[in-house]
């Protein structure tokens, strides 16, 4: 059992028969009345974000979790398959457990969060950005560079990303996995 003074970002807790991760919290001490902690919680099973408020000193059920690095292997009808590089154990995750599965490239590494007591996967954390090669995009039109003009581009994983007009087929680009947005062109 933990209390509200132990709350930190990323902490996992059990509430209403579900497991939540704390996205952000704020300790509030109003001029009149008791202090309280306002939190934003993300459900690890549904991905839904909820707001919750506790009085300072309230007891919460902390869930012990383990982060393990896994390598993406392939996708089949069972889901996305990953392998632990140390034990060679394989885990299959459903698409709902991944933030943007269409940006996963074979061989890329992610972190999977496991419930420590039950040893079941809860969620997967993608890297903050990935570098992928553009396989198809329309050619840019000269003279359209005065404003922030974007066009659709398909990358090697099959995902479609909006990119600036100067990006061509064969270019490698960095993509933010949280938003799915283009970040920059990568020169190698």
Please provide a brief summary of the model.
0% of the residues lie in helices and 53% in strands.
How would you explain this protein's 3D organization?
With 188 residues, the chain is mainly beta. The chain folds into 3 domains: 2-62, SH3 type barrels, CATH 2.30.30.30; 65-125, Beta Barrel (OB fold (Dihydrolipoamide Acetyltransferase, E2P)), CATH 2.40.50.140; 129-186, Nucleic acid-binding proteins (OB fold (Dihydrolipoamide Acetyltransferase, E2P)). 0% of the residues lie in helices and 53% in strands. It is built from no helices and 16 strands. A 6-stranded antiparallel β-sheet has the order 1-6-2-3-4-5, with no helix packed on it. A 5-stranded antiparallel β-sheet has the order 9-8-7-10-11, with no helix packed on it. A 5-stranded antiparallel β-sheet has the order 14-13-12-15-16, with no helix packed on it. Strand 4 and strand 5 (49-55) form a beta hairpin. The protein is flat.
């Amino acid at each position: 059992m933990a209390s509200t003074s132990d709350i930190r970002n990323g902490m996992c807790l059990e509430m209403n028969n579900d497991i939540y991760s704390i996205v952000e919290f704020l300790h509030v001490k109003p001029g009149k009345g008791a202090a309280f902690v306002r939190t934003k919680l993300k459900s690890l099973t549904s991905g839904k974000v909820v707001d919750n408020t506790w009085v300072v000193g309230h007891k919460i059920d902390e869930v012990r979790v383990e982060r393990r690095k896994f390598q993406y292997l392939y996708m089949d009808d069972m889901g996305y398959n990953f392998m632990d590089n140390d034990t060679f154990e394989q885990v299959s995750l459903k698409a709902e457990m991944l933030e943007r599965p269409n940006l996963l490239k074979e061989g890329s590494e992610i972190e999977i969060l496991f419930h420590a007591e039950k040893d079941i996967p809860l969620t997967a954390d993608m890297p903050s950005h990935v570098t992928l090669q553009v396989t198809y995009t329309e050619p840019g039109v000269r003279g359209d560079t005065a404003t922030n003009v974007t066009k659709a581009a398909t990358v090697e994983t099959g995902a479609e990303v909006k990119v600036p007009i100067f990006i061509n087929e064969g270019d490698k680009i960095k993509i933010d996995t949280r938003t799915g947005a283009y970040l920059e062109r990568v020169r190698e």
